[in-house]
From TrEMBL:
The lineage of its organism: Bacteria, Pseudomonadati, Pseudomonadota, Gammaproteobacteria, Oceanospirillales. It comes from the Bacteria. This is dTTP/UTP pyrophosphatase. The keyword Metal-binding does not apply. It is found in: Cytoplasm.
Amino acid sequence: MLVLASASPRRKELLSLLVKEFEVLPADIDETPHHQEAAKDYVVRMAVEKAKAAINKYKVQPDADSSAIIMSSDTSVVIDGDILGKPASLDDSHSMLRRLSGRSHQVITSLCLSDLRFDHVITKCIVNDVSFRDISDVEIEQYWKTGEPHDKAGSYAIQGLGAVFVRSMSGSYSAIVGLPLYEAALMLAQFGIHPLEGLSHE
């Protein structure tokens, strides 16, 4: 059994491209960055802590499978070394998108796979570059009113209307959305889960 430690509908949708059946078990953790914590270290730490929290929740379930594999992930938008979280208001969104406007930034996504004993753990960190065109204040306000940026790191969704701001990107599109499919497939194979083999059988 594969368990996805995430409430993100985007990660669920992406994982369903690789695996037919899996359980979703969101893990709530403190996502506050440590003082002077590097963005890559933070993103990997978040994925690891989500995995640990999900393991603790899963193990107490009456039908828990002792051979279950936990998958967790975290995505952060980073500019000038600063981690941009999810906006709490239009002012937050305006501040974030104003910083991203006309510039390049990084979208860093981590992935963690672990067994229930946490003695077989693999982590991976993928850094992608995204370049934005100039964005006007009117566009920021209009975009906020669509509701799309409300729960998105950096206050935009590249898989949605936020794509109109993206001049170019390099790296993994699926990682920017929330789950790096290439890396996920390689890591799943290390746990004996082979996506193409599983999906090709009726």
